[in-house]
């Protein structure tokens, strides 16, 4: 994208990061009459929006509210989320005549392509007369008497206010960087330790070996982790992989999982497996694996029994003691396992942690100790569930900031 404006220039607002939050913020500020420059180091615009939602961008969730977000300071996101709601974003989408549909649980996707959302945000930036510097590397950000001075590969840029919208650490291949965290540290802000979230969980190779034949099996489960205030549970689809577990259920729980802690999975929710197996025993001539295959997917029944209770599946259910049936049923209802780790930032959809919100103003996203410096989007310690929530936070924090700068 061509740089417009003079090489050395002064603006009211410099937004660093032209992703979801940055473009939204720049558009809103520009349309308020602020002179805005939007800077990004990537060659292609908004790659994360492009690849999101399998190319169709799950751009919001109809039911998004503070309860769908994880943060060291859970109330922080309330203000921005209530001032810019999914309905507001839908109104914008409607103005740009973008067709969309609801998948499940309030998840809203483009009918055609996530490119529609990128085009919409570009058009909104154009309507606000936003100047672009892209690709452009920001070498330093310094504070002076009259605001900030940025040294960049496209020359010096002066700005009264700087907005950091450089996102989280996942997927460095498409431009993610730790820039936002470095700037936060440079200006003395605290960081909540970042970690990959919405990410597949892995297990050590030896303990996972018996479950490898289940790779590809998918089913709806209840999944939980933690206890007390740290407890979380979801009903979603689980996917077995060669290295561990994935699918929405695991992505959701991964955001709450603490290293070293177990996760607990009910592989047959809504089925009273103990009662059903004991009932099937009376006069049952079938093998246990066949009986179980009537209650859960066949491959799961066969392979899970082979892995967890070798030899039992081939025995006739009538010949098995109640105790063994109870053990099988309870093992499937409360399958407890401790992941060794996650697939990391290469496969994570978001970063947990980030700039500590206790140092930010919830109305304006401005650093309390550094007037004129704002942080929005994923770089902030507000992490949404899977299902359009992270974009809603990007839009809402971008709008809150764009209205304030
Ligand atoms: C595979 C995948 C699928 C996803 N699908 C969804 C989905 O369907 N729904 C949903 O809600 N969320 C989804 N997410 C999460 C969502 O994409 C992010 O939470 C969201 O994009 C965050 O917005 P942001 O503006 O904070 O950061 P980003 O959109 O990541 O934008 C950050 C921008 O900053 C730029 N940047 C980074 N470092 C620098 C630097 N040093 N200098 C200059 N520029 C820099 C980047 O190039 C980028 O353009 C998905 C994520 C991934 C990885």
TrEMBL record:
InterPro entries: BaiN-like, BaiN-like_dom_sf, FAD/NAD-bd_sf, RsdA/BaiN/AoA(So)-like_dom, RsdA/BaiN/AoA(So)_Rossmann. The keyword Protein transport does not apply. It comes from the Bacteria. Residues 195-350 form the RsdA/BaiN/AoA(So)-like insert domain. Keywords: FAD, Flavoprotein. Its cofactor is FAD. The keyword Flavoprotein applies. Residues 12-403 form the RsdA/BaiN/AoA(So)-like Rossmann fold-like domain. This is NAD(P)/FAD-dependent oxidoreductase. It comes from Pigmentiphaga kullae.
């Amino acid at each position: 994208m061509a740089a417009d404006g003079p090489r050395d220039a002064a603006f009211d607002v410099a937004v660093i990061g032209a992703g979801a939050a940055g473009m939204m913020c720049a558009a809103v500020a520009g349309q308020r009459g602020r002179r805005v420059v939007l800077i990004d180091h990537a060659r292609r615009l908004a790659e994360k929006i492009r690849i999101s939602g399998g190319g169709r961008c799950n751009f919001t969730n109809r039911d998004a509210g503070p309860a769908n977000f994880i943060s060291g300071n859970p109330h922080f996101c309330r203000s921005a989320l209530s001032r810019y709601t999914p309905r507001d974003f839908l109104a914008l989408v409607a103005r740009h005549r973008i067709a969309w549909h609801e998948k499940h649980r309030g998840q809203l996707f483009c009918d055609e392509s996530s490119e529609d959302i990128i085009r919409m945000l570009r058009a909104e930036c154009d309507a606000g007369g936003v100047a672009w510097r892209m690709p452009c590397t920001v070498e330093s950000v310094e504070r002076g008497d009259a605001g900030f001075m940025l040294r960049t590969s496209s020359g010096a840029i002066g700005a009264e206010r700087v907005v950091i919208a450089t996102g989280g650490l996942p997927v460095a291949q498409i431009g993610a960087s730790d820039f936002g965290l470095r700037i936060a540290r440079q200006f003395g802000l605290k960081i909540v330790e970042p970690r990959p979230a919405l990410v597949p969980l892995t297990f050590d190779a030896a303990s996972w070996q018996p479950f490898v034949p289940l790779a590809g099996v998918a089913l709806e489960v209840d999944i939980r982790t933690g206890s007390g205030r740290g407890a979380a549970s979801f009903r979603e689809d689980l996917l077995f992989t060669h290295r561990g577990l994935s699918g929405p259920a695991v992505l959701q729980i991964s955001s709450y999982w603490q290293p070293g802690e177990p996760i607990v999975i009910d592989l047959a929710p809504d089925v009273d497996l103990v009662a059903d197996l004991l009932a099937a025993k009376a006069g049952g001539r079938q093998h246990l694996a066949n009986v179980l295959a009537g209650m859960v997917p066949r491959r799961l029944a066969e392979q899970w029994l082979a892995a967890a209770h070798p030899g039992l599946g081939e025995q006739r259910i009538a010949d098995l003691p109640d105790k063994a049936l109870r053990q099988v049923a309870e093992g499937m209802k409360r399958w407890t396992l401790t992941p060794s780790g996650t697939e990391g930032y290469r496969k994570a959809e978001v970063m947990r942690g980030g700039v500590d919100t206790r140092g930010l103003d919830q109305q304006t996203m401005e650093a309390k100790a550094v007037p004129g410096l704002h942080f929005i989007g994923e770089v902030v310690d507000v992490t949404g569930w899977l299902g359009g929530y992270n974009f809603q936070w990007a839009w809402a924090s971008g709008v809150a900031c764009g209205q304030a700068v």
